[in-house]
Each structure stands twice: as structure tokens, then as C-alpha cells.
Amino acid sequence: MINNKIVSNVNYQLIACEILRVIRGKTSQRTFSNKLGYSFNQVGKWESGVTQIKWDDFLKIANFKNLAIEDAFSKLFFLSLNEQKFSARSSILVLEKSIVLSKNKDFSEARLVKKWIRGDSIPHFSSVLNALDLMPSMLMGFLSFFIDCSKIPSLQKHYQEFMLRLDFVLNDPVCVYVNAALQLRSYQNLKIHSDQFIAEHAACSIKHAKKLVLQMNKHEIIKWDGTKYLPCPFDFSFSALPLVKLRSLTKFTTQFAADLYPLIPYKSDIIKAPNTSISSVRVVAMSQSASRKIRELISTFHHEVSIIVKEDRLPKDNVQVMLIHSFASNIKHSGK
Questions:
Q1: Nearest Cα to 225, choosing from 184, 186, 182, 185?
Q2: How many CB atoms lie under 10 A from the CB of residue 63?
Q3: Alpha-carbon distance values, 116 to 15, 18, 53, 62 (Å)
Q4: What 8-state DSSP symbol labels residue 328?
Q5: How far is CA 109 from CA 76, 204, 291, in A?
């Protein structure tokens, strides 16, 4: 099996220290401590690892430096945080709802989550980083909102793997479909690998499918077990990240829907299909208030979908494509 995390055996405490050091910048540790309201060199203790920085202390620093932590949580987890004030406790509630930390066997501090939720104790910043890393791409996505990850020494391997997958999506979005096809029950039941099978479920030619699996295996994104390929649990889930590179996946999937979506509704007596297909396009005049409500609905949809996908323990039957766009008609474009 391929490990679900991008990199194993990560020192999250060291990462937390290095992040704090980068955020502090050229300001001295003592001066920065004083600006934060500490009468001694607390920042120096945190950065040296003498004491671990708590999550609420990091949020205090983030607020002081105007870092977009609340915005990152809202966009990454498709949640509206307007209902309650963003805090260390409310953010843990978001993580518990999205990742279910208290029942996650891969989270070493699962037994402490209920105390964090009750407010009996506050997690360390390193614990939150560990929790975010339980979801593919989430740690890099979160940090990318407010810091240049390439400047964090202990994150370099993490960052390189993250960018590798982004580059694969940029260069050929079909890799996302290929990885999903490898997760299907019917592929797992094959005695040997079939490029034709992958091509059918990844919406590409057999030649294209063969080329991609070889490239993905070469870069250790998927793994060859001697007869078939093992898919990468890192699911290329970048939907909430503000990265221009991801437009290639959006463009490909949109064109895919436009070209290949069936005109005849799936019915058991007409076309055999394992999952439901539905499509709808609306172009309407709308107030700002209504558009905000639509955005909230889409955010809720994405969040609910992530939960359904995460809890889906049944064998996978086909590659399902979910595509939603909502944007103003007068949005600026490149003119191409």
C-alpha cells in the first residue's frame, strides 16, 4: 500500500518552529514577543523548541500579522464560519467535523480531541498541522494561503511532492481520471493490468492511458505490484486552492462534460450505467444577496460531498465526475 500522507515521519513540531520563524521575519525574537504582549522572550522559546506553541497563540500571531487563517479554513473546508467567532476551539470543531479526528487511527492524539472540543485544553500548533496532514493536499493547501512553503526547510520534501502532483495536473489533467480508474472494483478484480480498461474509465485513448500510468509509476505517484497498479490515495483534491495551475483541470473537465455528457438520460433498459448522471445549466439575472446564498449552497454541497466520499467504504463502481461553476458574466477574461 502507498502511504496516505505525502511524506511519512514528519516532524510537525519542527515545522511549527520554522513557520513561526518565517512569519516573524527580520523582527528580533524579543521585540516580536513584546509586540505580542509577552514580557519575556516567549517567541525565542517557541522557535528553539524549549516550549511548544499552542494553537491559540499561533492564531494570536496570525491575527497580529493579518494572516488569512480564518479565510483558509473557510475555503478549504467549504464552511461558513460566520455563525460563530473563529477561535482555537471553533477551528478544532471544523477539523473534527471534516476529518473526524477523534476516531482517526492515523492521528496519534485522537484521545485528546474531545478535551479540545470542550475547551478543557488547547492543542499545540504542531497537532493542528498533523491533523491537516491526514487529508491529502490539505496541509500544503492551508499553509499556502499565508506562507511560502518553499521557505520552510523541513517541509521541502512535502512541498516537492505537492508541486509534483500539481504539475501533473497542469501538464495532463487526465492523470486525475487515471488515478480514479485504478481505484475501481472492476480494475482490482482484473488478473493483470489493462490499458484498455483505464482508457475506458479515464476518457482517453489506450495510448494515452499507457503513457500516463508509466509516467505516474516512474514518479512514484502510483505503484506497480507486479501485475497491476496501486492507486495513489493522494486524490489530487485541490478544488479550494487559489492556484492558477488548477484551471487546466477545470478546463478539461468542463470540455469533457460539454463533449461527452449523454443526451439520453440513463435508464436501465436503454443504457447500462452504475451511477447517476445529471446536468443543469442556468444563466439568470441575480442580486448580490441571492448570489451569496448560491455560494453558500455550493460550499455546503462540496462539504457534504467530501463527507460522503470519505465515508464511502463500498467497492467503487465507476469514476464519477462532479462539476459546478458559478460566476459573474462580466468576469474579466484573457480575451483568448
A1: 182
A2: 12
A3: 21, 24, 15, 20
A4: -
A5: 22, 43, 40
Contact predicate 12/19, CB 8 Å: no
User: From first to last of its 336 residues, what are the pLDDT tens digits of the chain?
Assistant: 334 454 557 899 999 999 999 999 999 999 999 999 987 899 999 999 999 999 999 999 999 999 988 888 877 776 655 556 788 998 998 888 878 888 888 888 999 999 999 989 999 999 999 999 887 678 888 898 888 888 899 988 888 887 887 788 788 888 888 999 999 999 999 999 999 999 999 889 999 999 999 998 988 788 999 999 999 765 666 655 666 667 777 888 888 878 776 665 555 544 455 556 667 778 888 888 888 888 778 777 877 787 787 778 888 888 888 888 777 877 665 444
Give the gyration radius of the chain's Cα atoms.
22
Q: Determine whether 252 is exposed, middle or buried from the number of CB atoms within 10 Å of its CB (0-12, 13-18, 19+).
A: middle
CA dist 48 and 279 (Å) reads: 55
Residue with C-alpha cell 492523470? 175
Residue 236's CB: how many other CB atoms inside 10 A?
21
Residue 13's Cβ-side half-sphere holds a number of Cα atoms within 13 Å equal to: 10
Are 183 and 222 a contacting pair, CB within 8 Å? no
Q: Find residue 54's DSSP bridge partners.
A: 124
Alpha helices by DSSP H, 67-192: 69-76, 88-99, 113-118, 125-132, 138-144, 156-171, 174-181, 185-188
Distance CA 146, CA 140 (A): 11
Grid cell, residue 324, equals 459546478
Domain boundaries, the chain: 12-158, 172-336
Pairing label, strands 229-230, 223-224:
antiparallel
Q: Do residues 212 and 178 make contact, with C-beta atoms less than 8 angstroms apart?
A: yes
What is the sign, positive or negative, of the torsion defined by CA atoms of 108, 96, 153, 52? negative
